[in-house]
Amino acid sequence: MIMISPNIYKEILKEYEELSDNAKKKLEIKKELCYKKCPRIREIDNELNMTGIKISKAIIYANKEDKNKYIEDIKNLTEKLKKEKEILMTENGFSKYYFDEVYNCNKCKDTGFVNNEKCDCFKQKMINKAYDMSNISEIIKTENFSKFSLDYYSKQKDPKNHMSPYENMKLIMRKCSLFIEEFDEKFKNMVFSGDTGLGKTFLCRCIAKELLDRGKTVLYVTAFNLFNMFEKEKFNKDNEEVDREILNLTKNADLLIIDDLGTEFITSLSTAEFFDIINSRILAKKSTIISTNLGTDELMTQYSGRIVSRLYGEYDMLKFFGDDIRLTKKFKN
Question: In the chain, what is the greatest distance between 2 CA atoms, to the nearest angstrom?
């Protein structure tokens, strides 16, 4: 089950403390190098650091008319100093981003938080820890598009589906590529359905890796583990806050991948929670991919009408068919 213990949570916080300390040390070294080459930049930084204090004093001590003029003068001076600093940095061979380049994440400056909210990098660290605990981090290193081959799919036409498994997989691969390339521009969801051994899970992991490499938060979870989390959240009163954080990520991650839908133990509670997740993500325009061995009739039998309605109304249903790839590989080798 994908859960993050309090100890792991503390470990992440400790990592940020170390990152932040290292960034401060690197920043001080960079500043000294820069100041040594151009002392005027140090003077500008000192003046800029005093602007906040000057504004605070104006707010406290000056009358309204003087205060507004004084604050405006400070703002104008600040802009002037920033422009002068940028010119001096360039003239002395430093990028204007020179002082920002010490951070792994410029959004949170390696603190893990932005405006007291967890930064996306913090959320992904939590997901990565979940991956580490379930070995998925190692799996997605080896299961990626460079390892995906169409050679194992038959080119013989399937009468029932009016095309060959090879042609079908080419279409599916094209849709997966578009899903990745248009991820920021177009809201899409997909359901991969079909028998075991046809590459559904492999493709899920390929997509997960591609989007992780692009800096997206991706939560990959099996339906069995997800539904177990629903039950644990409901009935374990001592459940840790960080466990709930993973459930929150099922609604907030840039991409949620639910693998093997249909293998879980179903209750009225878990189906209600499942509907809440997929519905919330649709409303928030956050993409979801679901893989399942179940066909249309089985989905309608196993899940409520409103769940099936959401899937067929809001998801691109991609059907996998053909021979079991694992068996094909075995006999080919």
Answer: 87
